[in-house]
Amino acid sequence: MKENAIEVMDRRTLVFEALKNDIINGNIKFGEKINENEYSIRYNISRTPLREALSKLEMMGIIERIPFKGVFLKKFDSEKVKEIYEIRLELEYIIYKEIKEIMTDKHIKKVEKIVAKSQKYNNSNNLAKFSETLEEFDNYLYSLSKKELSLKILSELSFYMNIFKKTNPNMQETVDEHEKIIEALKEKNDDKIYAALGEHLDNAAEYVVKTFDKISI
């Protein structure tokens, strides 16, 4: 019995998401070979949708095919990490320039409450909950924007950001940086917004690079 197109597409999507989750959760290590036979058994899937998922990851620059050796999860070098954060800076600047004009006191109070939660979890050294508030901070501000293309590209970058979450941020520094971003938005000052975002993302990139160097990926 032939599979219909929807079943095939669902299978491709499922195996692609499974691979992404294994990468994000560290089940596949940087530089590790991805054995097609092993993963087709693990996911209970034929090699065809697995190869299609791997090809998609290759197009994203996540994996690489080495002739006569196989498929490997790429290592992140410092230049690639910095480039990803530079792209994020420019996209967020586009969004924040827009939303500063429409943010009300209600919006400001909401984002200040999120940062207050970050401070609470920083004080209790609860990294898991702290990380959730960082995502909440970004998502709330993004939700105020109508810059659909910038938001779409940021969404695609989120895969890299989720990988970087495996590195532990300097929590107090991050709280302080978010407070500076809020102040710049309240002042509706483009230069201060760019400077606050730049400081925050430069520090994040530097921390990721240092952490990746320590674990020799």
Automatic annotation (TrEMBL):
What is the recorded name of this protein?
Answer: HTH gntR-type domain-containing protein
Entry keywords, A to Z: DNA-binding, Transcription, Transcription regulation
Which GO MF term does the entry hold, naming one? DNA binding
Q: Which residues form the HTH gntR-type domain?
A: 9-76
Q: Which domain of life is it from?
A: Bacteria
Output the SMART domains linked to this UniProt entry: HTH_GNTR
The UniProt entry, under CDD domains, shows:
WHTH_GntR
Q: A Pfam family matched by this chain, by name?
A: FCD
